[in-house]
Write a structure and sequence with these properties.
Layout lengths: L4 H8 L120 H13 L10 H8 L5 E2 L6 E7 L2 E6 L6 E5 L6 H4 L1 H4 L3 E12 L9 E7 L15 E5 L5 E3 L17 E9 L17 E8 L2 E7 L22 E7 L2 E6 L10
Antiparallel strand pairs: 1-4, 2-3, 3-13, 4-12, 5-9, 5-13, 6-7, 6-12, 7-8, 9-10, 10-11
Length: 383
């Protein structure tokens, strides 16, 4: 006999004996409570941090109650400093003067004594005689190749000889004639008709820059010598003959008259003009030198008596350098080496401002006879 459905189901789905398999081998939970009950989300001891560290107001009243918007003591600045009107009536209330402006006497000539002298005007050529252009070009190139010598320190014997006037003239190869020493510091020269330009120089400087500079000695230094012109032209006139006296810094092209090239100055006998590093026609200075006259040329080097003014033009040399010219024992003329220069023609005074040694120079061309005096006792000028 078939049993009812309920009894059959109860027997078909009856659980096996014992615990499920997962309870004795797989997925068994560890003993004790889950870890989350004491490791996660447990609050720290004490009150929350925000209760005593965050958003805690500082002690005392807010800063705005004691630091901000407090007015300074006293009345506002505008009461005594700002917008205060200047004393007196406004400018528009000043009385107007409708009369003519004050009269200015335009006929009064200002005192020009306080102004610097105007620059001497140079000439493009000499009215007497001029050298050829090829000689000038050759000299310019020579000067570019050979710069000025640096000053040298003389020994006691050399400096003593110069101080005593015992000075020798050196005859260059361009010199066509005779040169002899006729006395202590006295030289006699003679050139032939048609002689080309030549420049005789002393063997030693008359001015030693390292020894004589007033920047070291604090004493004015003067160098000077004289020349007597005995004859000119060789009896054929003087148009093709001339003599010059001056100073040169070495080296110098000896086929050029002194004053024509860099580091030199001179006065020429045929036109009476001064030449200072001047390759052109010189500047008007004195009258031509005549036969029988004794002329001299000198330079003075001194420290300025007072410092230059704020508006003074800058100068490359700290010395005051003057040049003077004498005739038959009297000082006739002179000039300041640093005088106003013509910017378009003048080449400056390089080599002549006391920074280099300076030798005496005698230039000659054509037929001439002359004497040169380096000893003070033989000078006509004793100033």
């Amino acid at each position: 006999m078939e049993q009812p459905y309920s009894q059959q189901s109860e027997k078909a789905f009856a659980s096996p004996l014992g615990p499920p398999p997962s309870l004795d081998g797989q997925y068994a939970p560890p003993p004790g409570p889950p870890p989350s009950h004491y490791e996660q989300f447990s609050p720290p001891a004490g009150p929350p941090t925000s209760h005593h560290e965050i958003y805690a107001p500082p002690s005392g009243p807010p800063p705005s109650h004691r630091e901000q918007y407090e007015p300074p003591s006293g009345p506002p600045l505008s009461h005594h400093e700002t917008y205060a009107p200047p004393p007196g009536p406004p400018p528009s209330h000043q009385p107007k003067d409708d009369g003519p402006p004050a009269y200015h006497d335009w006929t009064v000539i200002p005192d020009t004594a306080l102004l610097p002298p105007p620059p001497s005007l140079g000439h493009e050529a000499s009215p007497a005689s001029n050298a050829n252009l090829s000689d000038a070009d050759r000299a310019h190139e020579w000067c570019r190749m050979f710069p000025l010598y640096q000053p040298r320190l003389p020994n006691n014997a050399e400096y003593g000889s110069v101080s005593n006037g015992d000075i020798r003239l050196v005859q260059p190869r361009e010199f066509s004639g005779a040169l002899t020493m006729s006395g202590h510091g006295v030289w006699r020269g003679r050139t032939r008709v048609g002689s080309t330009d030549s420049c005789l120089l002393t063997s030693m400087p008359l001015y030693f820059a390292q020894v004589d500079t007033p920047l070291r000695t604090r004493v004015t230094k003067t160098v000077y010598f004289e020349v007597r012109l005995l004859s000119l032209g060789g009896g054929r006139g003087t148009d093709d003959s001339s003599l010059a006296l001056g100073f040169c810094a070495l080296p110098y092209p000896t086929w050029r008259m002194p004053g024509w090239e860099r580091g030199s100055l001179a006065v020429h006998s045929d036109d009476g003009r001064k030449y200072v590093n001047d390759t052109w026609g010189g500047k008007d200075f004195t009258s031509p030198i005549k036969v029988g006259q004794t002329v001299g040329i000198g330079m003075t080097f001194a420290v300025p008596q007072s410092p230059p003014g704020y508006n003074a033009a800058p100068s490359a040399s700290p010395l005051v350098v003057g040049v003077f010219f004498t005739r038959d024992g009297r000082k006739e003329n002179g000039w300041d080496l640093h005088e106003e220069l013509d910017a378009s023609n003048d080449l400056g005074v390089d080599g002549l401002d006391g920074s280099y040694d300076l030798h005496a120079a005698v230039g000659v061309f054509g037929a001439a006879e002359f004497e040169v005096f380096f000893n003070r006792r033989d000078w006509r000028y004793q100033g």
